[in-house]
Amino acid sequence: MISLNQLQNKLNNQTKNFALLLEFPQQYAERLWSIGVYDCATFPQAHERLRDVFDSNDLNSILTHDSFKYLIINEYDDQEIIESLHKEITAMASRIESQMFVDIETLELVSAIYKVLGLSEDAKFIINTGANFRLEWRPYFDAYDDPLAVQYADLKVHGCYYRLIATKFPFEKISFDNIKSYLYKIKWEHDGEFEGCISNGNSFSKHEDWLMMTLELFNSGIGNDARLNPTTFEIERLRYLVYGFPLVPSLVSDWHKPDLNLQVKNLDGDQKFIVRIDQQSLIFYARRVEASLFNTIDCEKHISLYRASVLAHFDADDELLKVNGVKYLTCFRPYSLEDTRGVQI
To answer: Residue 343: pLDDT band by 50, 70, 90 thresholds?
Structure first.
């Protein structure tokens, strides 16, 4: 069983790592960490309360404590504690932010807390789906001679359904010109064929327009900087470009729909979750839309750019994702090397 001395040393090391990570003076970091993570006014008070709470004969004295349970992360079965942390971490960051004299993005603080607590992948907003997570890919234009030209799969995020649309793209080098040429080739080869789209009223021409507008939104610098280029996603050893959006509820498929376990944060800024599926990656993008800003020019412009592109798909729902009463602009897009940079530490 873990000892009080071990927990005290862990608390000390956490404050040292927090200070190093954000380049804070040690005593300043101790105070911020105590207030933010353990809800104590001072670092000595955090140690004092830890001694009061600890019971050498009963680990539950720590495991069930509102804040000191986070000292147990990576020590014992900690899944429930980590789930609790996902829900509380924005409040932790807000408490730290309220005491700071320097300007640091809240998402950077969230990332730092995750890292100091020993959750390096959460610090980079990486979501590992695990071996049991399985996407059920199906032909979208199922009457084509090549029914695998466009595929779809449905999944659930925060209780809402999303649809991923995968467009086959066999070339390694991605550019607007070769994507356009390839889509034109498919369209020409299947000209006159019955498309058999699973969504009545949609067509390959509409799909082509949607894909080009979506590429324009996310990759205006495509071809100029290799780090911005979207990576393809392999399905049955074939390369695809994959984008996704909230799905109209009436169009949800009958096939298997896995639940993606991620927690959007009630914070400003662009949230980019790197979703790892079978050793490949997609990006789940989320941006909080505050009620007070919803009708402002900047907010409406930002939303309209998405609604004119990735969210303009025939199957896309007009409603924004709503989590605990807060609305978020969300979508899936391909991973790029640039996604390894940013606010994540």
So the answer is: very low
3 state DSSP class of 222: coil
Q: pTM (2 decimals)?
A: 0.86
Give the least confident one: 66-75, 81-90, 172-181.
172-181
What's CA 141's distance to the chain center, in Å?
A: 29
Q: What average pLDDT score do residues 303-309 get?
A: 92
Q: Which residues pair with 64 in a beta bridge?
A: none
The contacts found for 254-259 with CB under 8 angstroms, 24 or more apart, are: 255/136, 255/138, 255/153, 255/154, 256/134, 256/136, 257/136, 257/154, 257/155, 257/156, 257/161, 258/129, 258/133, 258/134, 258/135, 258/155, 258/156, 259/155, 259/156, 259/157
Strands (E), 80-133: 126-128
Lowest mean pLDDT among 45-54, 116-125, 218-227, 259-268: 218-227
Please give the pLDDT value at position 183. Answer: 72
R_g of the chain computed on alpha carbons:
23
Cβ atoms of 198 and 309 closer than 8 Å:
no
Q: How confident is the model at residue 194 (pLDDT cuts 50, 70, 90)?
A: low
Helix boundaries (H) for 99-203: 106-116, 120-123, 176-189
φ and ψ at 11, to 5 degrees? -60, -45
Which amino acid makes up residue 61?
S
Q: How far apart are the first and last CA of the chain?
A: 32
DSSP tag of 247 = B
Do the bridges between strand 326-334 and strand 321-323 make them parallel or antiparallel, or are there none, so unpaired?
antiparallel
